[in-house]
Amino acid sequence: MRKVPPLNWLRAFEATARHLSFSLAAKELNVTQSAISQHIKLLEHHVKTPLFIRSPKKLTLTETGKQYLPLVSHAFLQLESATDEIFGEDKTVVRLHCNVAFSTLFIAPRLASFQADYPHIEIQLQHSVWWQHRLEHHLETPLQRALEIRYGDGNWSMPSVSLGENVIFPVMGKNYSADNSDLALTMTALAQHRLFQLSGVRHNWRLWLLRAGVALDNEVPLNTLVQSDCSTVLHSLAVRNQGLSLLSSVLADYGLANGELYRPFDYQLPIKEGFYLIKPSKYDSPNEQLFAEWLLDSCRA
């Protein structure tokens, strides 16, 4: 039977595969880059298979490396969980990985209600604009036991729960019409307005107008010069009466309810992608379960 590789080799592989960078892995593990490279070479020699494709400009995983990464990550997760169980991790802490937009526009406005009911539970929100999971490869590489909110089509190997149907529609600030009274606010006149949208997505303004029944000639330019990869920016631009933003219902609903946003049109475009709660059931604590149930109830409300 082939022996299990040393843990430092596996840790070097897991960190490098997650970051796709020797230098970032070295920084995370507080070792030299040459040590990381050497550990990975020893691991590849041990398993007699290349795990990375090395090129001058980038580092990518081989197909074998892609298969190996979630298994190694899961093994470290089990070790961490077992250590927590035996040596007493603080069970009052709930960690949630999510993107900035969901944290800012959905969780933050509603979190006071959870804290009022469960004042003893500490919530740690950990996020970035582009979450470090390599979703294009559908890799599961959790850094630690935690709940997670992901945006996508739900095609992940870990158990996930949809946070509800997702639709997009235009929103604007409550004073936008008054500040731009010289512009007609109709679907056919939207080309005259500043229109904000997410970059790099298919569900843009032209698709929304098309599905809404507006036969807009492709030769007609839309003023979509400002785009962002974060819905928080689109929300802020709309609230500040800078123009109209296409927003997901999940992220716009609270602003609509408190009056800082307004929907000028009824049509909403259903989209396949949505927000999902990733919940590793084997590692649930009672407080994680309470938070997950509160989150799902908030989405249904």
How are the SSEs ordered, and which strands pair?
Blueprint: H1 7-19, H2 22-29, H3 33-47, E1 52-54, E2 59-61, H4 63-87, E3 93-97, H5 100-117, E4 122-126, E5 147-152, E6 160-162, E7 167-173, H6 176-179, E8 195-198, H7 205-211, E9 227-228, H8 231-239, E10 244-248, H9 249-257, E11 261-262, E12 269-270, E13 274-278, H10 286-300
Parallel strand pairs: 3-4, 3-5, 8-9, 8-10
Antiparallel strand pairs: 1-2, 5-13, 6-13, 7-10, 7-11, 7-12
Helix pairs in contact: 1-2, 1-3, 1-4, 2-3, 5-9
Overall description:
The chain is of the alpha/beta class. It folds into 3 domains: 7-81, Arc Repressor Mutant, subunit A, CATH 1.10.10.10; 90-164 and 274-300, D-Maltodextrin-Binding Protein, domain 2 (3-Layer(aba) Sandwich), CATH 3.40.190.10; 167-270, 3-Layer(aba) Sandwich (D-Maltodextrin-Binding Protein, domain 2), CATH 3.40.190. Helices cover 41% and strands 17% of the residues. It contains 10 helices and 13 strands. The chain has helices at residues 7-19, 22-29, 33-47, 63-87, 100-117, 176-179, 205-211, 231-239, 249-257, 286-300; strands spanning 52-54, 59-61, 93-97, 122-126, 147-152, 160-162, 167-173, 195-198, 227-228, 244-248, 261-262, 269-270, 274-278. Strand 8 (195-198), helix 7 (205-211) and strand 9 form a beta-alpha-beta unit. Helix 1 crosses helix 2 and helix 2 (22-29) crosses helix 3 (33-47). The longest helix is centred in the first third of the chain and has 25 residues, at 63-87. The protein is globular, with a radius of gyration of 23 Å. The termini are far apart. Residues 129-144 have low confidence and may be disordered.
